[in-house]
Specification:
By secondary structure, this protein is of the alpha+beta class. It has one helix spanning about 5-50, and strands at about 70, 75-80, 85-90, 90, 100-105, 110-115, 120-125, 130-140, 145-155, 160-165, 175-180, 190-195, 205, 210-215, 220-225, 230-235.
C-alpha cells in the first residue's frame, strides 16, 4: 500500500473543506431567497399595483350615487318658420325617482316650455336664433345635477345653410347627424359639404378620403375616421 505524506493530503483536505463551504452556501440560499422574494413581491405590489402572485382584487364598485343624475345628448335644429322642438333629457337607471325642471338660460326671449317638470317636453314659440335650455334634476336625497341643451332655430339661406356645434359620436369611426335635413336644404339639388373644427375660422371641404357623407331617410350624416369634440357644418346648394 502506498503511503501518503501530510503534504499529499493538503489538496484533498482543501477540496473537502471547499465542498462543505459550498453546501453551506447553497443551504443558506434555499432558505434566504424565498423570504426575500416574498418581501420584494409585497413592495412591488404596494408601489406599482403589479402582483407577481396574480391579479389584485377588483376595487369596490362605486356607489350608485356617483352616477350622473341627468344629461342631454346632441343639439336640436329647427328650420324656420317652424317654431318648436323637443327637449330630451336622460336619467341614470338609479335615479328614476328624481324630480326635473327645465328653464331657458340663454337665447331670444320668446319661448314656451310645455311641461318644465318632465324629463322630455316640447318647447315652442321659438324665434330665429340660438337657445340654451338647462335641465336640473334633484334626487330623493336632495342631490342636484344639471346639463344644458342647445336649440338652433335656423332660417335656411338662399344658397347655403350652416349648422353649429354638431357633436361627433365615435363608437367605431366618427359621425355626426342632422335630422329632417330636407327642411333645411332643397331636396333635388346637388350639394357641397364643408366642415369647420371647433375654435377654427377656416371652412374645409368635406371630401374623401378624410370625410364622407350620406343622406338616408331624411337624415344627413357626415363620417370620418377620427375626430373629437364639436364641429360646424355648412351645406351649399
Amino acid at each position: 500500500m502506498k503511503n501518503y505524506s501530510p503534504r499529499h493530503l493538503v489538496p484533498v483536505m482543501f477540496i473537502a473543506k471547499l465542498f462543505h463551504i459550498t453546501c453551506a452556501i447553497l443551504l443558506l440560499i434555499t432558505i434566504f431567497i424565498p423570504s426575500c422574494k416574498k418581501e420584494t413581491d409585497k413592495k412591488e405590489t404596494a408601489s406599482t399595483g403589479y402582483n407577481p402572485q396574480g391579479p389584485l382584487p377588483l376595487p369596490t364598485p362605486p356607489s350608485a350615487i356617483s352616477f350622473a343624475l341627468v344629461w342631454v345628448w346632441t343639439s336640436e335644429y329647427v328650420a324656420y318658420p317652424a317654431d318648436s322642438s323637443i327637449l330630451y333629457g336622460y336619467a341614470g337607471l338609479n335615479n328614476q325617482n328624481a324630480s326635473y325642471f327645465w328653464r331657458k338660460v340663454a337665447g331670444p326671449a320668446s319661448h314656451n316650455i310645455h311641461n318644465p317638470n318632465s324629463l322630455v317636453t316640447k318647447v315652442d314659440n321659438l324665434e330665429i336664433g340660438e337657445y340654451e335650455f338647462e335641465i336640473t334634476a334633484t334626487d330623493v336625497n336632495g342631490r342636484k345635477g344639471s346639463d344644458t341643451l342647445n336649440v338652433y332655430v335656423i332660417k335656411p339661406g338662399q344658397n347655403e345653410t350652416i349648422f353649429k356645434n354638431l357633436e361627433w359620436i365615435c363608437p367605431m369611426g366618427c359621425s355626426t347627424n342632422i335630422k329632417n335635413i330636407y327642411s333645411f336644404i332643397p331636396q333635388n339639388k346637388p350639394i357641397l359639404v364643408f366642415m369647420r373644427p371647433k375654435n377654427s375660422s377656416t371652412w374645409l371641404p368635406a371630401l374623401p378620403p378624410a370625410f364622407e357623407y350620406s343622406i338616408n331617410t331624411n337624415t344627413f350624416s357626415l363620417f370620418t375616421n377620427d375626430a373629437d369634440g364639436k364641429v360646424d357644418v355648412k351645406i351649399q346648394y
